Amino acid sequence: MPEDRQGEPRTRSGRPGLSEGLSDLLRLVLDYLKQETVGPLRGLGRFVVFGVLGSVAVAAGAVLLLVAVLRVLQDETGTTFAGDRSWLPYVVVVVLALVGLGVAGWRVVAGVGRRQRGQAEGERGRRGS
Predict the structure, then answer these.
(1) Residues 94-111: pLDDT tens digits?
(2) Where does 1-129 show beta strands of DSSP type E?
(3) Which of 11, 20, 29, 100 lies in disulfide reach of 16, CB 3.0 to 4.6 Å?
(4) Cα-to-chain-centroid distance, residue 107
């Protein structure tokens, strides 16, 4: 039986055999799966890395800002927070931190739902017109 250039046996008509066709199909399917999974996962990985780095940067900035507020309250208010009231600047900073966390959590939860509802209502309005 004649062989093709890759050493695979060919049929009498000169076309590749069934085993070669199946191996080509398998290779094609595997290449397609790699293309459709590995590429998007790389993009997703970059998105996650930049998201984590951004979150760390924002968190570090928030901590520095809270420390700055604490120092201002301790140093620049004179005797307002002196003596028995020396603990109040810490309470103010903790309350500010909790408010910041609350606002961030509220925007995370409420922001996505409103946008999706608004888009859905806009689409219904366009279809009804």
Answers:
(1) 999 999 999 999 988 887
(2) none
(3) 20
(4) 16
Give the per-residue pLDDT at 112. 65
Helix (H, G, I), strand (E, B) or coil at 76: coil
As given in the structure block, the two tokens for residue 99 are 């408010």
- What does the alpha-carbon distance between residue 90 and residue 67 come to, in Å, rounded to a whole number? 10
Q: Which residue carries 């060919």 as its tokens? A: 10
CA nearest neighbour of 75 among 86, 59, 66, 84: 86
pTM above threshold 0.85: no
Name the phi and psi angles at 75, rounded to 5. Answer: -95, -35
CA distance 88 to 78: 13
Average pLDDT in the chain: 83
